[in-house]
Amino acid sequence: MRMLFLLLGLFFTGLGFVGAFLPVLPTVPFLIISAACFARSSERLESWLLSHPRFGSLLVEWRERGAIPLRAKWLALGGCLMGFALFFLLRDPSWMLSLIVASLMSVGLVYVFTRPTA
């Protein structure tokens, strides 16, 4: 199991760092998963990730308090609004599908905005 968690941690770390350069791919959620995997497989890699100069403080805040920075909350809102607008304009969905997509996005945003602010 330790090897599986190590491989998953490396995989999600890779996705996280790719997400740092691609705007459509999230970074921190993948690194949160990586840190959890490394906690079960590699103390050295977990420590490296938690002390990373760019992402470490975000991961520690999440781990200790479940906190999300205010800027990230507003970016999530903006991304959802832009994504829904593109979906609506480019796909011409039925009202039912639009309602389902808007509801799912709303649930995600409620979760994000009810977390403590880092």
TrEMBL record:
Could you name the Gene Ontology cellular component terms for this entry? plasma membrane
Q: What is this protein called?
A: YbaN family protein
UniProt keyword Iron-sulfur present: no
Q: Which PANTHER family match?
A: INNER MEMBRANE PROTEIN YBAN
Instruction: Keywords in alphabetical order, please.
Output: Membrane, Transmembrane, Transmembrane helix
Q: Which residues cross the membrane?
A: 72-89, 95-114
The UniProt entry, under InterPro entries, shows:
DUF454
Q: Does the keyword Protein transport apply?
A: no
- Pfam families per the UniProt record, alphabetical: DUF454 (PF04304)
